[in-house]
Predict the 3D structure of the following.
Amino acid sequence: MDELDVKILKLLETNGRLSHEEIGKLMHISRPSVHQRVGKLEKNGVIKGYRGIVDWGKLDQKIKVLVSVKVVSQSFQEAAGKIISIEIPGVSIIECQRMAGEWCMLLKVRVTSPEVLTLLLDEILRIPDAKETSTTFILSTIYEDGMKGV
């Protein structure tokens, strides 16, 4: 992997829908060269997939929170699986991170209201391996490219 590959990755990370032709024009290299490089990056697992950026406000899930969870379990994966499989209307668990330190798990969650967040927290604490939660409301997000998100 060289400097051109890193530049391609940065472009795709910012906009995963860029065509190989558009990337070639931005980087002043040929489309076949971009195609070959992207193919190699995908094959080697450097590019794991492509995502869409979701406007959660359109789904009325405007409230974004981080939920820290203390888990006492021999199997973190099992406990995490139970937590992320919780289904409550108006709640979307976006990410689950394993943490080192006082808190074992960090969930990035979208909710429609504080009331449905309360339902989620209650459900988490019904899981025998989950011992405690702490919630932080996110007011805004600024991305690497300077874009703001809610």
